[in-house]
Each structure stands twice: as structure tokens, then as C-alpha cells.
Design goal:
The complex is a heterotrimer of chains A (about 280), B (about 425) and C (about 350). Chain A has about 280 residues and is α/β, with parallel strands linked by helices. Chain A contains 10 helices and 11 strands. The chains are: A alpha/beta (about 280), B mainly alpha (about 425), C alpha/beta (about 350).
Amino acid sequence: MNLTIPSSQTVDLSTAIAPRDSRETVGQPFVDKARMECRDVDVSYGDTQAIYGVSLDIGSNEVMAMIGPSGCGKSTFLRCLNRMNDTIDSCRVSGSIELDGQDIYDKMVDVVPLRAQVGMVFQKPNPFPKSIYENIAYGPRIHGLASHKGDIDEIVETSLRKAGLWAEVKDRLDKPGTGLSGGQQQRLCIARTIAVSPEVILMDEPCSALDPIATARIEELIDELREHYTIAIVTHSMQQASRVSQRTAYFHLGYLIEVGATEQVFTTPQHRLTEEYITGRFG
Amino acid sequence: MSRLRTIDVVQGGLKKRYRFERLFRRLGLAAIILSLAFLSLLFISISMKGYTAFVQTFISITVHLDETKIDITNPGKAYYGSMVKEALRNALPEVQGRRDKRSLYGLISTGAEYQLRDMVMANPELIGTIQTVWVPADDDVDMLLKGHIDRHSPESERRISDKVIGWIDDLENQGVICKKFNTTFFSSGDSREPELAGIRGAAMGSLYTLLVTLAIAFPLGVGAAVYLEEFAPTNRWTDIIEVNINNLAAVPSIIFGLLGLAMFINFFGLPRSAPLVGGLVLSLMTLPTIIIAGRAALKAVPPSIREAALGIGASKVQMVMHHVLPLAMPGMLTGTIIGMAQALGETAPLLMIGMVAFIVDIPTALTDPAAVLPVQIYLWADSPERAFVEKTSAAIMVLLTFLICMNGAAVYLRRRFERRW
Amino acid sequence: MKGLKIGVALVAACMLTAGVAQARDYISVVGSSTVYPFATTVAERFGKTSSFKTPKIESTGSGGGLKLFCSGVGLQHPDITNASRRIKKSEYDRCQANGVKDIIEVKVGYDGIVMANSKKSPLLKLSRRDIYLALAKEVPNPKGGEELVENPYQIWSEVNPSLPNTKIKVLGPPPTSGTRDAFAELAVEGGCKTFPWLKAMKKQNKKHYKAVCRAVREDGVYVEAGENDNLIVQKLGADPIAVGVFGYSFLDQNADKVQGSMIEGVAPTFENISDGSYPVSRPLYFYVKKAHVDAVPAIKGYLAEFSSDQAWGEEGYLADKGMIPMPVEERASFADDIKILKPLEM
């Protein structure tokens, strides 16, 4: 689907702030070197529509934060990006979502390789009830990325190193992954995701179940990972969004209200709703 | 409303709340104690009646394996009964008269002659020698010595006359009567003579039947549960199937027997009374239990594990096979074992397919005629001989042991393979 | 999914072996649970003394046995059925219709049906008329006249002043049992016949006569205690006023606990039943399919064992098990029938 965006729709910075009842997206939803391009995405569960016409780009090697009050559709939108919503029977997605120019909802696209390209880290750490080693090795093995034990060993080590967990677990790789602390489990899940070398990593409130110290570790990690991966993160914490992301999208009741550089969104929001949310008037 | 008043109201109602709580706990405890009492009553009464079946009275006789009576080329054809009778006459020479001699021969089980025959056939060199062998006593003697026949009751009221009791006492004084562990009970098939009856035939029949049941019901049940829970679309058809499966779990088991009779025996022409057919019928009966337990186990696997697998690109089948099924397996095995335990205790459907039968030979194949443990219990309970009362209780004890082992295995598997997440 | 494959292979295997399994090297016997203890004893002896396998004996009840027996000729059908009553015309016709042409009838002996109560209570001396009045569904009006009323009797002494002043409570087998049929026919109908006007009815309306004279009351006085005679014996021990109805062999084994009531002044003893003076006894039978005699070689041996004197004779082992032997001439006659395999004609 080709969509030409009329230039009049982008709002000039100098103009007045958009009113509360406006549902037009303000800011810069599009970038030049987009990794993922979403156009007019509607999502509904049965009769209830959850997302209304969201158009948004996620650029290469950037961290895109998605914020908004509970039930605003940010998680739903994130799960559309690797078709996790397919598992829900009543879920319908329309519009187009392209990864490197390929529509991921095309009939020809298989979700299995797609999810290898677009990995996901979930809200609650969910390691498999297997050993730490097996947790990491599982993905490469099913995708056939490595067949020799030596290769898999190497992938396990590099993935754990990238996730900053190697030093802590290298002596107990055969111990169950569920025996680690919450923060370690979440880093294990991140390591598991990067073990299949995805291009994009989706993170759905990865720190909501963690204490502040573990959260800080994950945030550092996200910053390091940006070098190699494109990351989209849903978060409830505005501080976290401002710390880790380059661009921020604000969702409200299924509408994408505002997108822009993180600093700009937090300092000079262009929509009344964004302003009220980040100043803590509601949400 | 002031803060003080809230506290007062709470304090005022507190007593009542705690009283209710205490009452509830006590009622629960009483319920448990009551059911435990009934259970132990059952166990105790069965063990009290049945433990004597594990010993058996034997009489030692000195037999002359007369070479003139045994054809050396065909020792199986000889009439060993006469040698047993001769031995008895020698042991109690004072017994005279036809009628008394007949009662005397009745002291020893009819199994004695077959025991001698088997002994000679296994070792023909014994022919012509004099051998002292322990042979089982008749069930009436056994009952008397175990105290199940009261020797002080009037003579007309018991099956053993005062004269015979005198002989038995005489033999006891000679030291040729003793009680030994009853190996026959565990090594032979059914018999109309209580002293020769054993449960091995029924136990083997149960084993074969359950093997067939397991081999059919488990893979089919797990397959059906996985398909229905993980892959089947939710529509009217799957709803109908689900309702039907739940219904089948509650269908009286005799219906499955009728179905088995019509389908496996009359239509496919499989043999009557065979463990194969019994297993097929019982697997039909157990399938719903396994499917329902399997689906519950699959539902209990947290969605986060499914998401984790799908999230790194596992296909749906990989997700199910690598993660969901292994996690659900303990629950499925528990369901299967409970279903099998249910099948082990079933007689009604087997009546229809001819497994409620007198079968002496121990089955060696799936198509041999066989009975199963509960059927054996049922048949013994219906036998007139007093000695079958203790056999019945002993067989119940064996069946209960099997059931306890199976349910214990279910608990063990659950503990051993249950994973926390 | 390895298990699934094994399961499928197994099912396929049984379908294939189905044809092979038809060949049978053992005798298949079905039928009455009353004859079962005797038939199994013979079968066991036969299995041990011959080179053949021990016959398989199913306890299906007389009616169920005859139904299976008459379902056809061929090794998937039983060779022999035991019955605690004679084959009915309708059953015989069914056999004929299904190609079971030649049937050999063998009477094996008699079984007494006893009414017994606990030894703690006084011995009952009953007549068949007492039994009829106490247990029939409808009885002649106690006030006189030739009309039937719902059975009003609740106490034995109401039936007959010489009987004790205790509640009537009879534990007996359910209608599916052959013992119950025989009891209704011999004892209840026997008492019914003692009323001349009821006996006259037999000639006018046989169906109605049977319905009246064999119907056992259903108001809770006659308690259906199941097919298990041991259970009835146990219940009698616990309940001194109850009277049980069961086969003689159970009385024989439990003579220390229960006593058999005298009927028409005759006690149910081995001697009285065998000489025919005890009125409530019935013959036991088995039926052999002639077409199977050659197909299953063991049958001839089994018949010979059953009809030998050491089995069904006066001193035979079946008598030890509680079966009442036939008189010598009757035994000889049936033994001859067996030798020439004389088919039954009805």
C-alpha cells in the first residue's frame, strides 16, 4: 500500500499546540531510513476496535519508546509488529506493516522466519523451564543456525555476553533458567531473543516486574544493544522512555497522538493530551 | 463515623467471625476423620478376613511311587490318586470301612495326584522310590485349622464330623500337618478347589488387558487432547465434540461393553473372552478421562511459555512438542494412570464380552481367554465354598495393592516432573 | 508420537489376527450361574486329566446363555450352554432359525431351592400354601370368596396361626435369576394350586393363571438381594427375622449359620432332595451343539467326564459340591443319549 502523506499534515513547531479532541497524529511519524513502516494500521478484537489508523516508522538502530495510559493500545500495536496477535483468534489487523519493504501481513509471509527477524521480550520474564544453556540454544537450533555443538556454544556465550549475563551464569549453564533472579531472568530472555540474531527487538514493558537496580541494568543493556539492533519498547515509565529512547510515540485510546524526538516530546509536546500525560495530569 | 466506632464494630463482630471459622475447620476435619474411619474399617475387615489366605495347610504323605502302577514310557497316564489313597491309609491304619475311607481320602486336596504326576514327569527316576511330599490339605481341613469352622459347634452343623477331626488331630500329633506360605495363590490360575485356586491367571489377564488399554488409549487420548486444545478451530463442531467427550466420561461402563460386543466381537469377529477385546473396550472407556485430564493439563501450561516459544520463531507444532507437551505430560500421565486404575477395577463391560468366565489356564497371549482381577473377586465371592471367603478378601487385597501402586506412581510422576515457572 | 504409531499398528494387527483367532482349541461354555460351580469342577478335572485345554466357562445366566448358544453355528459361538431350567420352545425355535439344528440335551442333576433363616430364630415349618400367601402379589381375599386382593399379610402368623408372630421379610434373587423362576414356579405356584378355584383357572385362562400364581409381591416384603447367594447368607446372620431363598449348596456350606425351613414337613437335606420328597427342587441341564462336536475335539471328552459316575454319581465329586444326583436309571438314560449324540426334539 502506497500512501502519500500530504505535507500539510505535519504540524509546524511554531504553531499553537493541538487541541484535546484532535486525533490527528502530530510530530514526525516518518523517518528517512525506516526499518519498519506502518501505514493506517487498524486493529480490532471482534467488534471492539483497539487501534485506529496508526502510521509510524521505526528507524534503524534507534530505540523507539511507546508510552501512554493503560489500555491505549501501545502493547497491541507492538504485538502487531511480529504478528504475535495472530495467536488471538478474534484479532483482525488491517493497513500495512512493512519490514525492510516487505509487507509482513502478506499472505506469502511466514510468521516463523518473521519472528526470527523480529524478536520479542515480554513483560514478565518467561524463561523455558530448562537449563540456561538450553534456553539460549533453543532458538538457533530450531532455525538451524548452528548444527555443531561448538557453534552453539559460541552463540550461547556471545548472546549471554551481549545480554551482560555471562559473568554471572557461566559456571552454571546447566542449571535451570527459572532459578535465576527476576532481573537475571529478564536478561536471559533478552539473550535468548538475540541468539537468533533478529533485526528488530520488541520489548513489552520489560522492566515492570523488576526492582530499580535490575531495571537500571536492563536499561543500560538496551542502550548497548542499540548499536546492532532496532528496538521498540513499550513502557509505563516516562523516566525510562526518556532515558533509553531516541524517539517517543504517545498513544491515547487507540490513536497515535504524537511522535517525535524523545527530548522534544518531553520538553515541548505539541498536543494537549501529550502535555497533560507527561505532566502527570492523568494517566 | 469516627475511627473508634469502626474499631468497635469490627471487635464486636470478631467473635462471631472466628466462631464460624472454627466451626468450618472442625466440620472439615470431622469429614476427613469420618472418611478415614470408613476406609480403615474397610481395610481392616478385608485384611482380617483375607490374611489367612496367604498361608495354606499342607499334609505330608509318604507315597510309594509303585513301578507296577506307573508305565515308565508314559508316566502321565498313571492313576496317582490310588497311591495318594494308599499313603493315607498307611498314615492312619485304624480307619476302616468304605464310608470312613472315603472321608479319609477327602482330607487331601484332589490336587495331590496332579502334583505327584508332575513330579514324576519332571523326574522319571523317582518311579519305584518312596517319597515324602507335602501336599495341600482339602479346604475343609484348612478352614478347620484356621478356625473358620468351629470344632465345638454341634456335629450336624459343620461339614467335618467329629471322627474326621479326630484323624486330623492324630495327624497333627504325628507332625505331618503344617501351615506354609501359600505360593499356589500367586502361581496358579482359578480353580473350583479353594486350596488350588490362585490369582495369577486373573493378574496376567489384567496385565494384558491394561497393556492393550494403555497402548491404545494413551496415544489416542494425548493426540486428541493436543489437537482439540491447541489446533482445532473453535466452532460449533468442536463444541459438539467437547460436549460428547464430557458425556462419554459419565456413560455407565456397561454401555461400552455392549458397544464392544457389537463392534469388536460381532463385527470384526475378534475372539470372545480375550484380553485384546477387553483392552479395546476399556480403552474406549478410559479415552474420555485421558482426553479431559490432558486438556486440563494443557490449559494449565502458562501462556507465557507459549509466547516465549512463538516469540523466538518456533512454529506451532514446535511450540507444542518442545514446550507445552513436556510441561503438560505429568498431568496427562496422572490422568492416564487414574483412568487405568479405573479400568483395572472394572467388571461390568467385561461381562458383555465374555471375560466373566472360569479360566484355569494362565493366558499367554492377547487372544487367549482370560479373566481379570475384579472378575475373579466377583466369581469367588459368588462361590458356595467357605474357603473362598478368605480367597476373595485376599484377592481384594492384591487388587488394592495394585491400585495403591498405580496411584502412588501417579503422585510420584507428578512430584518428579512437575515444573514450576 | 511414537506411541500413536504403536497403537495404530496394534489395532491393525488385531484386525489381521481376527480371522486366525477363529480356530479354537478349547471348549467354550456359557450359561446358568447355578450350574456354573458344577460345570467348572468338571471342566477343571477334565483339563487336568486330559491332553486338552481347560474349557472356558462363562457365567451368563440361563437365558443369556441360551441366547448366545442359539446365535449360530461356528467357532465364534459357544459349544455348550448350561441352564437351570429346560430350554423353552421359543428358544428352541430361535436356535433352529439360526441354523443350530441338532441340540443334545443333558440333564445333570437336581438343585434344591431352600428357604432358610438364622439359627438364632426358631425353625420355620412352611407349606407351599404359606409361601404363596406370604409372597404372592395377589392372594384370595382373607375374608372369603373367590376374588383376588393385593396381598395384605405382613406377619407370618396372619398367614398361618402356627407360624411365629414375626414380620414377613424374604430376601431372594431378582427376576433375572433362574433360581427365582424356579422358586416362583415350584413354591409360589405350588401353593396357588391348592386353591381349587385358582387351579380351575389354569384350564380356562392359562396366561392369567400364570400371571396370578407366579407373580411375587413388590411392596418391599420380598427383598431382591442380588444374584450373590453368599450375600443373602450373610444378611440372614445379621437379621434374625429375615428368611432367605437360595440354592441348596449354600445351605450345605453354611449349616452352622443358617437353617433350612421345612417345606410340607420335609427338611431340605441331601437325601430328601435326591429322593424327591423335598418339593422345591429343579433339574439342571446343559445343551450341546452337535455341529461342534467334530470341530472341537475336546467336547467328547468333556461329555464323557461329565457323565462318568465319579462326576455325577451318588458319591461323585459333584455331589460333594452340593449337586443332587439323578437316580441311576435316569443317569444311564442320559449317558446313552450322550454316547449316540441324540438330538433334542420339541
